[in-house]
Amino acid sequence: MENVYEPKKIESEIIAFWKKNKIFEKSVARRKGKKPFVFYEGPPYANGLPGIHHLESRAFKDIIVRYKTMRGFYVPRRAGWDTHGLPTEMEVEKKLGVKSKKEIEEKIGVERFIEEARKNVFLYIKEWEEFTERIGYWLDLENAYVTMANGYIENLWRIIKKFWERKLLYEDYKVLPWCPRCQTSLSSHEVAQGY
């Protein structure tokens, strides 16, 4: 009988081995107390499916953190989920059938809109976790940070306050792309994606 190459089977066996033997956890724990290499993943939205561009960006991130780990640095890798912004709002607008902020305020109500957004942000979390596991991108998914958590938001305000106290903030004007429908400024990334 000839050997048959079964990539899905091999992949499953490798993932099972990593999980059973806690390989990721051991790779981090073995370097505890060593010089840290701080890594924050720019968190994805879990209300959309992962795509090939996510594979590419995560492959590059993984190269860096694995290299630093192999060089002896302590590199804990905590996952995160972005739960703010236009992708979240636009999905909820589609779901509720509204087309403007005025409709949200008058027809739906801001509180209901926020509640629907909270339900929507983790729509594809299982697919994201499976994707992350299958590409061998080691992250602590169990202790992921979430941008809508009060602790996260309060920490950001604390950092901004420190910038203010050190007089690192100033008021000025800046020309930005603007969406008249969303009534908000747009990042270059949002413009490129056609928001």
Structure description:
- The protein is mostly helical and 195 residues long.
- Helix content is 52%, strand content 8%.
- The chain has 9 helices and 4 strands; from the N terminus they run αααβααααβαββα.
- A two-stranded parallel ribbon has the order 1-2.
- It is globular and about 65 Å long.
- The model has no long low-confidence stretch (mean pLDDT 92).
Question: What are the defining features of this structure?
Answer:
globular, two-stranded parallel ribbon, 195 residues, 4 strands, two-stranded antiparallel ribbon, mainly alpha, 9 helices
Main sheet attributes: strand count, strand direction, barrel closure: 2 strands, parallel
What is the gyration radius calculated from CA atoms? 21 Å
Query: From the helix content, strand content and strand pairing, which structural class follows?
Result: mainly alpha
Report the end-to-end length measured between terminal Cα atoms.
56 Å
What's the β-strand tally?
A: 4
Helix content range: 40-55%
**Distinct helical segment count:** 9
Principal-axis shape equals globular
Q: Please give the order of strands in the largest beta sheet.
A: 1-2
